[in-house]
Amino acid sequence: MLEVKVLRRGDDFIELEIRGEGHTFLNALCQKLYEDPSVIFASYNIPHPLEDRALLIVRVSSKSPVEVLKDATMRLKEDALKFRSAFESAFKKFTSGR
User: Fold this and answer.
1) The pLDDT of residue 34 is above 70
2) What pTM did the predictor assign?
3) Which CATH superfamily is domain 3-96 in?
4) Where are the alpha helices (H) located in 1-98, listed in sequence order?
5) Which residues neighbour 32 within 8 Å (Cβ) at sequence distance 6 or greater?
6) Strand partners, 57
């Protein structure tokens, strides 16, 4: 289960503790964050592989860091839904061709 806790927040940055997610989600999220030109820095750290905890920090130049995070997660969700649809379509074509 995903849990998010705000550790620190300022006008141009936010630092979060995220539980329940690992490299797969956090790397994709950072990639989406960097698509926004107002993002100066976006990175995460998993302090220890046996801990179910990651730290994410985002620094922005002009927008609200919360809004930037919301926008990036929505774009990531849209990409996942598009991939799912394309996968299901390809799978149908593959199985019906047998």
Assistant:
1) yes
2) 0.87
3) RNA polymerase, RBP11-like subunit (3.30.1360.10)
4) 23-33, 65-96
5) 72, 73, 75, 76, 79
6) 15, 43
